[in-house]
Specification:
The complex is a heterodimer of chains A (521) and B (111). Chain A is mainly alpha-helical and 521 residues long. Chain A has helices spanning 3-32, 34-62, 87-110, 117-136, 140-158, 165-196, 201-207, 212-229, 237-244, 247-271, 286-310, 315-339, 344-378, 394-407, 414-429, 431-456, 472-490, 492-508, 510-520; strands at 65-69, 81-85. Chain A starts with a helix and ends with a helix. Chain B contains five helices and two strands, in the order E-E-H-H-H-H-H. Chain B has helices at residues 13-31, 57-60, 69-74, 76-85, 90-110; strands at residues 4-5, 10-11. The chains are: A mainly alpha (521), B mainly alpha (111). At the A-B interface, helix 6, helix 8, helix 11, helix 13 and helix 15 of A face helix 1, helix 2, helix 4 and helix 5 of B.
Chain lengths: 521, 111
C-alpha cells in the first residue's frame, strides 16, 4: 500500500481526530505564542481540509466508504462505531471546513484584542469536530454524542463576550433549548435500541417496520432536529444566538445548524427510507404526510423570517431572522422532494435544496462577516446609529452588495441558482407555494436595500468620521465568500455536477447505503 | 457548463450578463442625446424644500427604523401578533417546541 492509499483509507478517522486533538493541544500552543496559536489553528483546519479533499475524491469516484472503529468481526460482544461517508456527508464536510477556515482567517483580526483566545480556538475546533462527526457517523448514538458536543461548545462560544449580559442570556436560552432537544433525541434512540437491538443507522433502516413506536421516534427526531436547524415556530433561539455571538463564531454555529438539517435528511431518506411509501389511513403514503408537514413548517419559517427581519434595527439580529427564512427555503425544497417522491421534479427540488445549503452558508456567512466588520470599526450594532459607511469602507460595501444580491436570489449570483431550482420544482407541486417563496425573496431584497441605505449610503455621520476600512484578514475572509458566491452563480453546473447531484443521489438511493454498510459489517 | 437545466426550464448566466450589457449600452446611448446643462456649485444643485431651511446632512438621514414605515404601519395587526409570539422568554421557546410536537403527534396519530 502506498502512503497515499493509507492516508485515504484512514481519512474518515483523521478528519475527526485532527481537529479534536488540535483542540486539546490549543491551550498548550497558546502558552508559547499568540501568532503560533493562530498559525496552528489554520494549519490544522487546512490539514483537515486536505483529508476531506482526499476523501471526497475517493468517495466521488469509488462510492461510499465505511470505516470501522473497534473490532472488525462481530464474534464477541464489542463496542464499536461505524463511520459511513457518502456524497452527502462529504458535501456537508466541505461546507463545514470552508466555514471553519474562513472563520479562523476572520478571527485573526476580529478577535485580536480579546482575552481567552486559547479557550476560543479550543471550543471552535471542538465545534468543528462535532459537526464533522455528525456528518460522517453511521451510528445514531454516536450522532447524539456529537450533537451534545456541538451544543456545549456552541453555548460556550455564544457566551464568549461574557461581559455582555445579552450574550449570556442567548447562551442560556440556547443550552436550555438544546438540552431539552437532546433529551428527546436520546429517548428516541433508546426506543429504537429497545425495539431493534441496534444503533447502526443502516441496520436500523433495514429492520424498521414503522410500528407505533417508530412513529413516535420519527416525530421526535424531526421536531428536535428541525428546531436545531432553526425551523419556525421553534426558531426563536436562532436570532438570539446568531445576534449575540461573535460573527466568526456564528459561522461555525451555522455549520452546526446545517449539520442538524443534515440529520433531518438522514432520518427521512435513510433511516425511514424503506418505509416512506407505506400506505397510511385514507390511502395517503407516509412520504406525502411528512412532505406536507415540512412544507407547511417551511412556509411558516420563510414568512416569519422575512416579516420579522423587516422590523429589526440590530443588524446581526436582522441577519438571524433572514437565516430562519433561508432555512425555510431548504425545508421547502426537501418537503417538495418527499411529498412528490418519485416525480422527476422531486429530484430537481432535492438538488436545489442541497445547493441552497451551500449558498445559505456562503451568503448568510458573508452577511455576518460584513456586520462583524461594521461592529469592529464602529462598535455599534444598531442600524439607526450608523450611516454613510460606503465612503470609508469601500470594499466592505462591495462585499455587502454581493451578499445582498445573493441572499435575495438575484441573478447572476449563487442564491439565484438554487432558488431557481427550488421555485421551478415547487411550482410543479403547487404554484401558490412557489409564488409565496418568490414574494418573500423580493421582501428579502427590500430588507437588505434598507440595510444598504441605512448603513452604507446617506451623509457621513460626525460620530463615524474617523472610521477606517476593516483589517486585511477580515477583508480576505469576506472576499473569499464573495468570490464563491460569484463563482457558483456563474458556473452552477461545476458545483451541481460534481457535488450536488452525487449528494442528492446518495440520499435518494438509500438501498445502496444500507447494502454498503451491512456489507461492510 | 453554463446552462443549468431544471427539467422545465433553463438558466444561463452568460446570456443574462449579455442582456444586461446590451441594456447598459442602450441606456448609455440614450443618455448621449441629452443636453449637459448641469453646473456644479450653483443654485441649480441646491435642494428646494418649499422654502424651508435645509437641515444638516446627518439630520436628513432617514434611520433604519423609519424606513418602510408605511408597510409596517399597515401591517400593524400582523406585527402585534408576531411580537407577542416572540417574547424572548425561554419557557415560551420550549412551549412552541411542545406545541409542534403535539400537533405532529395528532397528525401522525390520525393518519
Amino acid at each position: 500500500m502506498t502512503l497515499e492509499e493509507i492516508l485515504i483509507q484512514h481519512s474518515p478517522a483523521l478528519v475527526i481526530a485532527i481537529p479534536l486533538l488540535s483542540a486539546f493541544l490549543m491551550p498548550l500552543i497558546s502558552r508559547i505564542n499568540a501568532k503560533l496559536r493562530n498559525v496552528f489553528a489554520i494549519a490544522m483546519l487546512g490539514l483537515t481540509g486536505c483529508f476531506i479533499w482526499l476523501l471526497a475524491t475517493d468517495v466521488l469516484t469509488s462510492g461510499p466508504r465505511v470505516y470501522i472503529f473497534g473490532a472488525k468481526n462481530l464474534t464477541i460482544p464489542v463496542v464499536r462505531i461505524l463511520f459511513e461517508v457518502d456524497s452527502i456527508g462529504i458535501f456537508m464536510a466541505i461546507i463545514t471546513i470552508m466555514l471553519a477556515i474562513i472563520a479562523v482567517i476572520y478571527s485573526w483580526s476580529f478577535m485580536n484584542e480579546q482575552d481567552g483566545l486559547d479557550k476560543y480556538y479550543t471550543l471552535l475546533l471542538l465545534l468543528v469536530t462535532s459537526a464533522l462527526g455528525m456528518e460522517f457517523t453511521g451510528d445514531i448514538f454516536n450522532f447524539f454524542v456529537f450533537l451534545e458536543i456541538s451544543c456545549i461548545a456552541s453555548c460556550a462560544l455564544i457566551a464568549f463576550w461574557v461581559t455582555e449580559g445579552e450574550a449570556l442570556e442567548a447562551a442560556f436560552k440556547y443550552i436550555v433549548v438544546s438540552a431539552i432537544g437532546a433529551l428527546f433525541v436520546l429517548f428516541a434512540i433508546g426506543v429504537l435500541y429497545a425495539q431493534y437491538d441496534a444503533l447502526n443507522i443502516a441496520t436500523l433502516a433495514q429492520a424498521l417496520q414503522y410500528t407505533f413506536l417508530d412513529k413516535i421516534v420519527l416525530i421526535l427526531l424531526l421536531v428536535v432536529l428541525g428546531m436545531k436547524a432553526g425551523l419556525a415556530p421553534m426558531h426563536m433561539w436562532l436570532p438570539d444566538a446568531y445576534g449575540r455571538a461573535p460573527p466568526s463564531v456564528t459561522l461555525i454555529i451555522i455549520s452546526a445548524t446545517l449539520a442538524s438539517f443534515y440529520g433531518v435528511l438522514r432520518v427521512i431518506f435513510t433511516l425511514y427510507g424503506n418505509v416512506l411509501t407505506t400506505s397510511m389511513r385514507f390511502d395517503f403514503p407516509l412520504h406525502v404526510i411528512i412532505g406536507w408537514v415540512l412544507i407547511v413548517l417551511a412556509i411558516v419559517s420563510i414568512l416569519i423570517g422575512v416579516i420579522m427581519a423587516l422590523i429589526q434595527s440590530d443588524f446581526m439580529r436582522l441577519i438571524g431572522y433572514t437565516a430562519v427564512a433561508e432555512v425555510g427555503y431548504m425545508f421547502l425544497a426537501i418537503g417538495t422532494t418527499v411529498a412528490a417522491l418519485g416525480a422527476p421534479y422531486a429530484t430537481v427540488a432535492l438538488q436545489g435544496g442541497i445547493l441552497h445549503l451551500l449558498n445559505d452558508a456562503i451568503d448568510i456567512g458573508l452577511l455576518f462577516l460584513v456586520a462583524g466588520a461594521i461592529y469592529y470599526v464602529t462598535k455599534k450594532r444598531s442600524l439607526d446609529d450608523i450611516g454613510g459607511l460606503a465612503r470609508t469602507m469601500k470594499y466592505t460595501t462591495v462585499f455587502f452588495i454581493v451578499a445582498l444580491l445573493a441572499v435575495a436570489g438575484m441573478p447572476p449570483l449563487n442564491g439565484f441558482t438554487s432558488k431557481f431550482l427550488i421555485y421551478e420544482s415547487v411550482y410543479q407541486l403547487n404554484p401558490i407555494l412557489s409564488i409565496v417563496a418568490i414574494l418573500c425573496s423580493i421582501l428579502l431584497l427590500a430588507i437588505f436595500i434598507k440595510v444598504l441605505y441605512a448603513a452604507f449610503l446617506g451623509p457621513e455621520l460626525p460620530a463615524l468620521k474617523d472610521v477606517k476600512e476593516a483589517p486585511k484578514s477580515m477583508l480576505l475572509a469576506m472576499g473569499l465568500f464573495a468570490g464563491l458566491a460569484i463563482l457558483i452563480g456563474l458556473f452552477p453546473n461545476l458545483f451541481i455536477d460534481t457535488l450536488v447531484k452525487p449528494a442528492a443521489d446518495a440520499l435518494l438511493n438509500h438501498a445502496q447505503y444500507i447494502t454498503m454498510v451491512i456489507g461492510g459489517i | 457548463m453554463f446552462t443549468l437545466e431544471s427539467g422545465s426550464g433553463f438558466w444561463n448566466p452568460l446570456i443574462w450578463i449579455l442582456i444586461v450589457f446590451i441594456a447598459f449600452l442602450l441606456f448609455y446611448g440614450i443618455r448621449g442625446f441629452g443636453k449637459n446643462i448641469h453646473k456644479k456649485g450653483t443654485e441649480q444643485t441646491k435642494a428646494f424644500l418649499s422654502g424651508n431651511k435645509e437641515s444638516a446632512p446627518e439630520d436628513m438621514h432617514v434611520k433604519a427604523s423609519n424606513l418602510y414605515w408605511g408597510f409596517t404601519t399597515s401591517m400593524k395587526a400582523l406585527y402585534a401578533g408576531l411580537r407577542k409570539m416572540h417574547t424572548g422568554n425561554t419557557s415560551d421557546y420550549i412551549l412552541w417546541f411542545v406545541v409542534v410536537l403535539a400537533v405532529l403527534f395528532i397528525i401522525f396519530g390520525v393518519m
